[in-house]
Amino acid sequence: MGRFDFLYKMDLQHRAVTVYIYLADRANKDGECWPAIPTIAKELKLSQSTCAR
């Protein structure tokens, strides 16, 4: 079973899955990360409004 299997089974849009995986990838050992929305949008090549949703 993969690390994100639960995520793939959820009824989420692909952009939401992308942002989730981005945040998980950048989280520290406590599962925390605080990137700014413009940073997420730039690195994922998505609009800021999409990342905020």
Describe what this molecule looks like in 3D.
With 53 residues, this protein is mainly alpha-helical. It has one domain (5-52). 58% of the residues lie in helices and 0% in strands. The protein contains 4 helices and no strands. It is flat, with a radius of gyration of 12 Å. The chain starts with a helix and ends with a helix.
**Inertia-based shape:** flat
Structural class: mainly alpha
Please count the beta strands (DSSP E, at least 2 residues each).
Answer: 0
User: What Rg is obtained from the alpha carbons, in whole angstroms?
Assistant: 12 Å
> What summary fits the major beta sheet?
none
Total helical elements:
4
Helix content: 55-70%
Q: Mean pLDDT, as a whole number?
A: 95
Instruction: Tally the structural domains.
Output: 1
Strand content: under 5%
Q: What is the ordering of alpha helices and beta strands?
A: HHHH
Q: Give unreliable regions as ranges.
A: none
Distance between the termini: 29 Å
Attribute tags:
53 residues, mainly alpha, 4 helices
Entry summary:
This protein is mostly helical.
List the helices and strands and how they pair.
Blueprint: H1 5-9, H2 14-26, H3 37-44, H4 48-52
